[in-house]
């Protein structure tokens, strides 16, 4: 007697479903809001994973896109209660910035 099969064999429908999940370069570019050339650049740099269908064609899974998005995301710190003032360099211009003009100095010197 043969034992019943416990594992189910993949059907053509499940294989077709997994192929439908692959995204083209233009679809990924649209999702990320970048150009298709930038998508190819990210793949070349190793920042975005892909599935090579042929030597020229690349496809992407939703998981690969999600991993890229998570790798590029940054955490925003919102735990500061009091905002810190911006520290800037003192104003340039010497006497002009202190409110004393050259005309005022001349008048004062004439009064001596």
Question: In the CATH hierarchy, what is the class of the domain at 14-72?
Answer: Mainly Alpha
Number of helices: 6
Main sheet summary: 2 strands, antiparallel
Q: Structural class of the helices, strands and pairings?
A: mainly alpha
Cross-sheet strand order for the largest sheet: 1-2
Secondary-structure blueprint:
Layout: H1 12-20, H2 25-32, H3 36-44, E1 51-52, E2 58-59, H4 62-72, H5 95-98, H6 102-110
Antiparallel strand pairs: 1-2
Describe what this molecule looks like in 3D.
- Helix content is 45%, strand content 4%.
- The protein has a domain of 59 residues: Multidrug-efflux Transporter Regulator, Chain: A, Domain 2 (Orthogonal Bundle).
- Strands 1-2 form a two-stranded antiparallel ribbon.
- Helix 2 packs across helix 3.
- The longest helix has 11 residues.
- It is mostly helical.
- The protein is built from 6 helices and 2 strands; from the N terminus they run H-H-H-E-E-H-H-H.
- The N terminus is likely disordered.
In short:
The protein has helices spanning 12-20, 25-32, 36-44, 62-72, 95-98, 102-110; strands at 51-52, 58-59.
């Amino acid at each position: 007697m043969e034992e019943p099969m416990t594992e189910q064999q993949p059907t053509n429908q499940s294989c077709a479903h997994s192929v439908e999940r692959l995204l083209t370069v233009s679809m990924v570019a649209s999702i990320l809001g970048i150009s298709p050339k930038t998508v190819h650049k990210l793949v070349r740099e190793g920042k975005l994973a892909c599935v090579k269908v042929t030597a020229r064609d690349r496809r992407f899974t939703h998981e690969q896109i999600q991993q890229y998005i998570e790798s590029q995301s940054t955490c925003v710190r919102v735990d500061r209660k009091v905002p810190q003032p911006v520290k800037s360099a003192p104003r340039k211009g010497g006497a002009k910035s202190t409110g004393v003009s050259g005309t005022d100095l001349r008048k004062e010197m004439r009064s001596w």
